[in-house]
Design a protein that fits this description.
The chain has 230 residues and is α+β, with helices and mostly antiparallel strands. The protein is built from six helices and nine strands; from the N terminus they run E-H-E-H-E-E-E-H-H-E-E-E-H-E-H. Mean pLDDT is 92; it is low at 1-7.
Length: 230
């Protein structure tokens, strides 16, 4: 639907551990010889994830398909419902990824609006390329939100985020957004390290020094599994 530039390709390595390890991870980053600092304050991240009616994106991820795409609408702040933000197509090719972002500057949701109302308001602001992604993934599957802290190395080559307070809300069966009935998620802290392909060796050295035991993590996969249990 649109091409990507090699400069946009990056690795995104995500790990999760117990939420009580949050401060240990913060100190590890801020005390690291790479000179990590926080470029701006933490903020709340919100997403509506879209998929096909038979959850094709989930199935492809579960099967380990090397070429796959997830579609989401992202906004920041404390608003439970969507406010101006971005529609994103997040592409994955083997272990490399990149994003297509489509800015949405005007209102897309008002309290009392249905998902259909949201879709109409969103589509009116999207380019033809963005509409194709939404048409191919018409089902709002879940809303998730979490608090994100940002870090960048002194040379600017490696970025890191720490996410806490995850919540997910099933959207598959209602005409109106569900903001109240949350799925049961483990209380985890998620560390994500992001870097360009040419920085792979440097990032590997960094990851080798993480002070806690970490496990691989996908917010999307965990949320779909959790809402399926509600």
């Amino acid at each position: 639907m649109s091409s990507h530039n090699e400069r946009d390709l990056r690795y995104e390595v995500k790990f999760a551990t117990h939420a009580v390890q949050r401060y240990k991870l913060q100190r590890w980053l801020l005390d690291h010889a790479a000179g990590f600092t926080s470029p701006y304050p933490a903020r709340r991240v919100n997403n509506v994830y879209f998929d096909t009616w038979d959850l094709q994106a989930y199935s492809e991820n579960l099967a380990g398909i090397s070429r796959r795409t997830k579609v989401r609408y992202r906004w920041y702040g404390d608003s439970a419902g969507p406010v101006p933000g971005k529609l994103e197509a997040k592409h994955r090719r083997n272990r490399l990824g990149w994003k297509e972002r489509f800015e949405v500057a005007m209102r897309v949701w008002t309290p009392g609006w249905s998902w259909l109302d949201f879709r109409y308001a969103l589509v009116e602001q999207l380019s033809p390329a963005a509409r194709l992604w939404l048409d191919a993934n018409p089902q709002p599957v879940f809303i998730n939100r979490y608090d994100r802290e940002y870090f960048v190395s002194g040379d600017g080559l490696v970025r890191a985020t720490i996410d806490t307070g995850q919540a997910a809300f099933d959207q598959r069966f209602g005409t109106l957004p569900n903001f109240r009935s949350a799925a049961v998620l483990q209380d985890t802290v998620v560390l994500e390290i992001k870097f360009a392909p040419e920085q792979r060796q440097l990032a590997s050295q960094l990851l080798a020094t993480v002070p806690v035991r970490l496990g691989r993590h996908s917010k999307y996969m965990n949320a779909v599994r959790a809402i399926a249990m509600v």
